[in-house]
Amino acid sequence: MRIRDPGIVAKLAEIRVELRQGTALAGLTSLGIGGTTDLLRIKNHKSLPDLLKLLDANHIPHEFLGGGSNLLVGDGELPWVVLQLVRPEPDVVLDGNFAHVDAAADLGRMITFCAKNNLGGMEGLIGVPGTVGGALRMNAGAYGMQIGSYVREVQLYRAAGRKIEVLRGDQISFEYRHTSFAPDDMMLTVILELPSKPFKVILEGIRICNEKRRSSQPLGQKSAGCIFKNPPGASAGRMIDELGLKGLSVGDARVSDRHANFFVNAGHASARDMLTLISDVRERVQKTYGVSLENEVVVWNA
Ligand code: EPU
Fold first, then answer.
1. Is 294 one of the annotated active-site residues of the chain?
2. How confident is the model at residue 77 (pLDDT cuts 50, 70, 90)?
3. In a designed cystine with 104, which of 35, 85, 141, 237 is the match (CB 3.0 to 4.6 A)?
4. From the CB of 259, is ligand 1 less than 6 Å away?
5. pLDDT mean over 25-45
6. Cβ 229 vs Cβ 236: under 8 Å
7. Distance between alpha carbon 184 and the CA centroid of its chain, in Å?
8. Confidence (pTM)
9. Alpha carbon nearest to ligand 1 atom 10, residue
10. Are strands 141-142 and 145-146 parallel, antiparallel or unpaired?
């Protein structure tokens, strides 16, 4: 979708929103898949209510993009514009055991920065690509921990009330790869309360998690992490592996040889290839195990 109306373009500049016309989302997602649309980069959170009012008034649909690491975007010209926060400097401010973090902060860099300041707890998420906002929205977790456990406060733009609100941690429910945020809520900042730990101890935890991840996941390849959620008491990766589906391909979309719940873009996969592979694998798992796998990856398909 293209914003061409000069009045809207001028208003965007006035509220300090940068318009990047015709952006290929393939370049902004870890899968390297996705069509083209206008990208609106938000330099100041305070401009969000005005921006959304402007888009609503002109009937311009939109999506919020975080780090693009858990996302499968459709092909071709996309029927909505994409909103993304610009990372401020600094993006993490510490106050005792509290880390005040911008949603656009890189998750791995935030964990390392806190570690250097003797604040731990997040070691399990090292190696997970994406932004803190994305991790928060999905309640990212690994190796027995989840980000939600450390959340004390979230500032967000709530589309329902069309305003910026602050929620306490205990007003949000964090479940397995799911939160009580509405799909059109946009994360802005978060306060995490992290346990004090010596840097050396955190570093050892980080080293162990890195090793586990490196040995079991296809880290150097284009992927969106796990495609399916694990069904209660079972492992999607193990089921897909048991069916002998590692290496199964549709075009360049391929079930990883390293971890069967990671589907990789081995070249120039389209969203259509990846979606076909996802439904094919889901069907085969359903047939054999009677389990309907739920997507973990977020799909924006026109
Ligand atoms: N397994 C196989 N074959 C495979 C993959 C896994 O047999 O191809 C077996 C493993 O040997 C193990 C079991 O399945 O016995 C579980 O595998 P793993 O430890 O890799 O964990 P997972 O359940 O597949 C989950 C998360 C990952 C997270 C890891 C580590 C989900 C869907 N996945 O994977 O998160 O990194 O645990 O905590 O919850 C993600 O969210 O995108 C993600 C990758």
1. no
2. very high
3. 85
4. yes
5. 98
6. yes
7. 14
8. 0.96
9. 238
10. antiparallel
Q: Which of 108, 129, 191, 110 is nearest to 156 (CA)?
A: 191
- Comparing C-alpha atoms, which of 143, 150, 93, 155 is closest to residue 120? 150
Q: Which two tokens stand for residue 128?
A: 């997970």
Rounded to whole angstroms, the Cα distance separating 298 from 31 reads 12
3-class DSSP state of 301: coil
Q: Looking up tokens 């809520």, which residue turns up?
A: 185
CA 224 – CA 222 distance, rounded (Å) = 7
Residue the block writes with tokens 């967000």:
156
Q: Determine the pLDDT at residue 229.
A: 98
Q: Is 254 in the pocket of ligand 1 (CB under 6 A)?
A: no
Residues contacting residue 262 through CB under 8 Å, at least 6 positions apart? 217, 218, 221, 223, 225, 226, 227, 237, 255, 256
Residue 164: pLDDT band by 50, 70, 90 thresholds? very high
Amino acid sitting at position 66: G
The residue whose C-alpha atom lies closest to atom 9 belonging to ligand 1 is: 238
pLDDT reported for residue 302: 67
Average pLDDT over residues 15-28: 98
Measured on CA atoms in the order 22, 26, 30, 31, is the torsion positive or negative? positive
pLDDT digits over 133-159, tens only? 999 999 999 999 999 999 999 999 998
Nearest atom within ligand 1 for CA of residue 143: 38
Q: Give the sign of the dihedral formed by CA 248, CA 254, CA 257, CA 260.
A: negative
